[in-house]
Request: fold
Amino acid sequence: MSPISRFAAISAAVLGLLFIALETFRRGLAALGTTPVTVLEDYVAGLLLIVAAAALFRSARMGWPLMLAAGAYATGMMTSSLWGQVEAQLKGETWESQQVTVIAVKAFLWLLPLVLSLLSLRELRAPVR
Reply:
């Protein structure tokens, strides 16, 4: 496994678990009954990232295409969340008790899948070795 594949697989696995754990911690399992779509979108992102990581670990042919799809989905999902939080901060609105910390965490959760998507594109464009 190349260093880039190892980085991508480990990052995606950790990120996938974070999406699931942080959403469960933030909203609780009861949110599945009240706001299921909000919870499920994070769970889907987490599961996609974990599946992509597993495929890369196994050196499966679909590893990088799955990573591209998972990274793009997670980046898209986090885009409105991050920028909405930044906008609230700029307007002086308070959504969270630790607004700046939440923005920093959301920025990380937005940037890492973006990096994974770009790495995937790079690997998919590389000549077959």
User: Anything to note?
Assistant: Residues 3-125 form one domain. The CA atoms of residues 87 and 93 lie 9 Å apart.
